[in-house]
Amino acid sequence: MSTQPMSIEQPSSRWIWFLDVLFAGIAALMLQQYEPVVRQAWASGTGTFIISVSVAICLTMFFVYDVAVYDALARKYPYKITALGFGRFNIDLVMAFVLFLLLSDAFRKNPDWFTILGTISVWHILACIWHILARKEESPQGSSLIPIYPHVCFIGIYWSVAISINYVLRWYGVSDVTRSNVVLVMLSVAIAVVSVWRWKQIVHKLSASPDA
Fold it and tell me: Residues of 31-55 as b/e, b for ≥16 C-beta within 10 angstroms?
């Protein structure tokens, strides 16, 4: 009687599954949170409704980018049962929590652009650390810093957009409320544009090179 060797699932492979479930839970919570918010925004007027929906759509694009790229990178750099692998998994958990905070603020009736700016900056800093650990785990003798440069640039783009628009509108004497709304929308658009561009870039790079 012949027996077939049993394939043993690596414990680390379940970490990706756990993060996917966590992402699904975040999406469900955000949809539940936003349903009454969008009704309130509609009742408050067309302007409030457009701003609310625009910000929600833009940050949803960031969420989609995060989930899609995470799955691609987690397969490109699979977790290992090592200190670095466990460290990456913990960073993933923290990044998921930061993503939850980001969406929680974006899906409010009156999102705060400065809170969104600070939260997404923290997310990109954590992404830099994740890449450093992944490259170090892959090549203990040395690690390339190329993957972290885009994240640093993105932080610079977000802050430049927000601060420059806020400064110009203040110089022209635009009211605080209007200025805040304009900065919020433009920052959200910048986040959406970066998300789409980065998603396409990583999909292309992962098919040819590990430096993503």
Answer: eeebeebeeebeeeeeebbebbeeb
In tens, the pLDDT along 56-92 reads 999 999 999 999 888 888 777 777 777 887 888 899 9
Tell whether the model's pLDDT for residue 50 goes beyond 80: yes
Give this prediction's pTM. 0.85
Distance separating alpha carbons of residues 61 and 64, to the nearest angstrom: 5
- Amino acid at residue number 58: C
Give the separation between CA 189 and CA 113, rounded to whole angstroms. Answer: 12
